[in-house]
Write a structure and sequence with these properties.
By secondary structure, the protein is mainly α. It is built from 4 helices and no strands. The radius of gyration is 34 Å and the shape is rod-shaped. It starts with 13 loop residues before the first helix and ends with a helix. The model has no long low-confidence stretch (mean pLDDT 81).
Length: 136
């Protein structure tokens, strides 16, 4: 049993009509099949283009902004880590930064990293005022 089809009538330019005739001469090809596939491809491509036109620029802009934020966060995290190492080293309570001072600084830095991990895991935020932080 053949699939239900609806008859359509339309006019083509002579050059386009000749191209359709040439394609339809191939074995297994019909004018109806060629036109149906062409219309389906046109509709699908148009839908993709509408999505690209509607959202493509926005998605590209958002992607660039996310890349900038990622870069900025990496810079801030690295700067903060270096600042903390420097501060802990200066406050290690020994006059010269010898191996013992460096060991103390490394131990303090590891404790700091662990504390940050605990705060993040617990959902605490250090930049909130104390009253808001206690409410969480």
């Amino acid at each position: 049993m053949k699939a239900e089809r609806i008859r359509h009538q339309f006019l083509l330019e002579p050059a386009l009509s000749e191209k359709l005739e040439t394609l339809a001469r191939r074995p297994g090809a019909t004018k109806s099949g060629i036109v149906a596939k062409a219309i389906e491809a046109f509709i699908e491509r148009r839908g993709e283009n509408e999505l690209d036109q509607r959202y493509g620029k926005r998605l590209d802009r958002i992607s660039r902004e996310v890349d900038r934020v990622r870069r900025d966060v990496e810079i801030v995290v690295e700067s903060l880590a270096l600042f903390i190492r420097f501060t802990i080293t200066l406050n290690a309570h020994t006059p010269a930064p010898d191996k013992a001072t460096q060991a103390i600084a490394q131990e303090r830095f590891q404790k700091f990293v662990e504390q940050v991990g605990r705060h993040i895991a617990a959902g605490k935020k250090s930049l909130l005022p104390r009253s808001e932080d206690d409410a969480q």
